[in-house]
Each structure stands twice: as structure tokens, then as C-alpha cells.
Amino acid sequence: MTITDAFSRIRSVFGVTSHGPGELAESAPAVAVREVFRRFWPYLRPYRRWLWVVLVLIVLAPLLDTITIWFFKVLIDRVLVPRDFGLFFTLGAAYLGVTLLSGLVQFVDQYLSTWVAERFLLDLRTDLFGHLHQLSVGFLERRKTGDTLSRMTSDLAAIESLVLSGLAQALSYCFKIVLFAGALFLLSWQLAAVSLVTVPAFWLAAKYFSRRIKAASREKRQRTGSITSVAEESLSNAALVKAYGQERGETERLHRENLGSFAAELVATRLRSLFTPLVELLELFGVLIIVGLGTWQLVQNSISLGGLIVFLGYLSQLYAPVRGFGQLTNTLFAASAGAERVIELMDRRPEVRDPEQPTPLGRARGVVGFDDVAFRYPHADRDALHHVSFTAHPGQTLALVGASGSGKSTTGKLLLRFYDPTSGAVTLDGHDLRTLDQADVRRNIAVVLQDITVLDTTVRENIRWGKPDATDAEIVEAARAADAHEFITALPDGYDTRVGSHGRLLSGGQRQRISIARAMIRDAPILLLDEPTVGLDAASTERILEPLRRLMSGRTTIVVSHNLLTVRDADRILLLDHGRVTEAGTHEELLRHDGAYAHLYRLHRHDRPEPVAEQEPA
Ligand SMILES: Nc1ncnc2c1ncn2[C@@H]1O[C@H](COP(=O)(O)OP(=O)(O)OP(=O)(O)O)[C@@H](O)[C@H]1O
């Protein structure tokens, strides 16, 4: 971004023009503060009892402040002016007592408020995370992970500052204003009436600034989402960045996004910093008027010296919450910008939903059917699958082969019901998947996917994912069957070795064998293998074929593969071309047919590299 761009952004923020969506972080529709409360207040219901206690403390604190200040009036008028020690000790003891009580109230108030606030955040974050996992895979794939993460962290915290800390502050300010203003009227109603004249000016200033600060804060939040997106994407692809020497480019990309955030923060800070001195000026104005009028009243003997000094004390205490109110509106509006981004996520409904009354499905037999299925990805301009039909029976292996982008993985995603077909139906044991519970469908399918297939935890836990209640013995048995036991025991901590982020501490073949063990332990009637040998050399491929065959036996297996050599034994092979099934049959039938499959197969056979053994750890 050039300096001109930065300034034009600053100008547009000052002008409160609404921004279009940022390049990386999506913008969220504006939401009224009232709506934010309506949405998030229910999360505080479980803590209602504690909130009552906090409320009592919120009243108690300003009450103790008022009493403390009043002591000074008594001290001046009854001890200092008459030079009489009589009341000194009683006053001193009372002052000490009230100060101790005030300290206790502050401690309990802060501790309790933080406890409730943190519980609120905990519940809300867990809920949002759960909700995100309910959303369709397609939705999550389309979003920037970094932006979603920033919504789950800083934007959630902003909601807390709005719904809880903000509200508590507002209540505390209200009580302070009522108590201090009451004391002012008690001391001298004439002076009190004059001093309140400046209050509307405070209000107007706050109103003027808050709208502009909200616009700047919204921009800032969106920019923060973009920074997280760039950082997340860039760091998680560190190897690619290095390999292509893009370190500088990536750093500049982050810098550009940061500049946007920098400009927005400057605008917000400038507005906030203008607001404070302006309000202080108004305050000084009020105090000077009161000192003048008060001196006159003192001469007239209509107020005591103690009364006047304490009046000024209350007045300065009164300005603080009034000013605080102004600033609070700014904070509240800034926080509501964060809330908008969270609400936008929470309002998302899954594209794939369970039926109202799902057909119960225990352990399926495993008959998989595609009945004239067509499918188009959301926001895509053409179909990824057209008129795809096939049936796979238990014990059979159906292979999907074809060029890159021909729709093989899409077929697998429809079987897992990550998406619903645009027309036609995907069936399991004759039931349309849309009539079944998604969890029931997926429980009956074990997958070995081509993408990163292990999590950053121990080998044992990675395998246990397939069957959460699996015993250690079952895990070892599955690992043996997947030809993984040997290399696992050679790892530094055996089954308790952490595999690193995305399983980076393991080789591709080892990762794949762990995911085969996971699929083994799941023991589902249907097996979906998406490119199980991708990225492996010929020797490693040979090595995992044996455990794969063991895994496949007796199950319905759908195998997606580029590598035609791994699918020769399949009972039926479908060749996909631009989303259509163009050839179908056994390996021999397709070779006899001498079409595209036969041609591809011949190419593969000639390309086959010499086996090179994969290195196992010593
Ligand atoms: N999430 C998505 N959103 C939009 N279009 C997609 C998405 N995923 C895949 N596509 C498109 O759908 C078509 C089929 O993709 P698919 O991933 O099924 O191909 P494939 O045969 O598995 O390819 P490969 O062998 O390279 O994995 C392609 O044109 C692809 O661009």
C-alpha cells in the first residue's frame, strides 16, 4: 500500500463510509448493540446468582466512596476549623474501617467479575467452536482459517467487554452519578444545579465521537482478521515459501495488511485522544464556575468551608463517571464491531442438515449406490459431476480413476455427505443419505484421505481416533495389521511419540500407515480410500498395499486413485472424465475395450519407476 492509499483509507474512515469486504477477511453485516445483548445475554444465565452479588458490590463501592468524601467535610468543619481534637480519633477509626471495607469490596468485585467473564468466554468459545464443526466442510474450506481464528479469540473477548465488563462499568457509573449528584444537591442545590449545566456538553461530545470510533474499530477488527489469515497461511506453508524464495514477498504481504490495521488504529487513536482533552476542558470550565460561585456563597455564609471543598471533591468524582460514560460508549461501539463478526459466524446454518426424523441406521451392510448423481460446488459455475451411477456391494472394490480434476474426490465427498447432490441420490443400503443421520452415515465409513491425515498428538491417540474406546491392545493389533507396529516401536517414545504438526516428524508412508491403522480399528463396513498411495514411491506403495488389502477384505471399498497399478484388482473400475463416467468394467474388460483406460494404463506401466526402499528409523 502506498502512503496515498493509507491516507485515503484514513480519510474514508473519518468520513464513516462503510468499507467493502477486505481482500482476506470477510466483512460482517452491522448489528445493533441491543441485538448483541439479546444474542449473548443467555450465556450469562447460569451465573445469574453471582451476577446479583456483583451488582450488590457495584452499588456498595460508590456508596463507600461517597461516605469517605463526606468524612472530609466533618473533618474540616468539626475538627480543623474549630481546632478541636474531640472527633479526630472517632473519625480516623471510621475512615480506616470504611477504607478497609472498600478494599475488600474491590477485591471480591474484581475477582468475581473476572470469574464470571472468563466463564462466559469459555462457554461462548466452546459453543462457537462446536458450531463451526457443525457447519459444512465446504463452508469451512471457503473461509480463511486465520480470519475465523481471530473471530474466535479477540472478537469474542470484545463481546465480553460489551456484554459484561461494559455493562458492569455502566451500572457502576450510574450509581456513582446518582450518589455524587445527590451529595451535591444535599450540600448546595444552587451550586449543584449550575454544575450540571456542563453535562449535556459531555454527552454531545461522546455522541459525536462514538460513531466515528465505531467505524474505525470495525475497520481495525477486519484488518486484524486479515493479518492472522496471512500469517497463518504463510507460516503453515513455510517449506513452500522457502523453496520458492518467497520470504520477502510474504513479509511484504503481511506488512501491507498490517499497514491497513495501522491506519485504522491511528484513526481510532486520534479520535480517542481528541476526545479526552476536549472533555477535560469542559470539566475545567465547570470547576472554575463552581469555585467562583462557591466563594461568593462562602462570603454569604450559605455554605461552610468543609462543604465547599467537599462539593468540589464530589464534583470531580462526578465528572469521572460522566466522562467514563462517554468513553464507555466508544468502547461499547468498538466492541460491537467484534460482536458483529462473531454473530455472522454463529448465524451460519449448515448447508448439509440432518432430517427431522432420520431413518435409524445401525451397522450398515455397506451397499453404496450413486443414482444418476449430478453435483455443482457452491459458487462454482459448472458441474463437477454429471449423471454418475454405480452400485458397490459388500466385499467389492470399486475404483474411481481419471485425470486430475475429473471428479474422483468429489464422489468420495458426496459419499461422506460433505455435500448433497444437486440432482440424483447417493444411497447407503438403499436409503438416500438425506434421510439418514450424518453421524450414522459417517460411523459406517472409514476413510484414508490423501491430505494430511494425522494430528499433532501421539501415535496412539492418532490411531485411537478411529475408535475412541479402543484398548491399547487393539491399537497395537491395528498397527500390526497396518504394517506400522515396527516403525512405531522404533520411534523415541514408541506409541507415545508425538508426530508433530501435520505429522511432520514422520515420512509420508509412515503417516499413511498410521491412517490405515486408524481405519482398521474403526472396523466400518465401508472403506473410502482417497489416493492412499499418493506421494509414495513404488516400494512404499507396495509396502502399504498389503495392509490395505487386509483392510479391504470383506468391506465395500471405494478407492480413488491416479495410480492405475494400484487398482488393477478392483471388481469394477470407473473412468471419470470431466465429471462423467466414460468407461466402466474390470481391468481386463477395460484393456480389451482398448479405450482411454487402456491407453492410460500403458502409459503408467511404462512410467513405473524402479522401487526404492523407504528409510525406516534405525
Ligand atoms: N471445494 C471446491 N469448490 C469448488 N470447486 C471444486 C472444489 N473442489 C473441487 N472442485 C472442482 O471440482 C472438480 C473435480 O474436483 P475433484 O477434486 O473431485 O477432482 P479429482 O478427480 O479428485 O482430482 P485430483 O486427482 O487432482 O485430486 C474440479 O474441476 C475442481 O476444480
TrEMBL record:
Q: Which UniProt keywords apply?
A: ATP-binding, Membrane, Nucleotide-binding, Transmembrane, Transmembrane helix
Membrane-topology descriptor: Multi-pass membrane protein
What CDD domains would the database entry show? ABC_6TM_exporter_like
Task: Answer yes or no on keyword DNA repair.
Answer: no
Keyword Transmembrane: yes or no? yes
Listed Pfam families: ABC_membrane, ABC_tran
Domain (ABC transmembrane type-1): give its ranges. 52-334
Q: Which residues belong to any copy of the ABC transporter domain?
A: 368-603
TM spans, by residue? Answer: 50-72, 84-105, 177-204, 278-296, 302-320
Protein name stated in the entry: ABC transporter ATP-binding protein
**Protein's organism:** Saccharopolyspora rosea
At the highest ranks, the source species' classification is: Bacteria, Bacillati, Actinomycetota, Actinomycetes, Pseudonocardiales
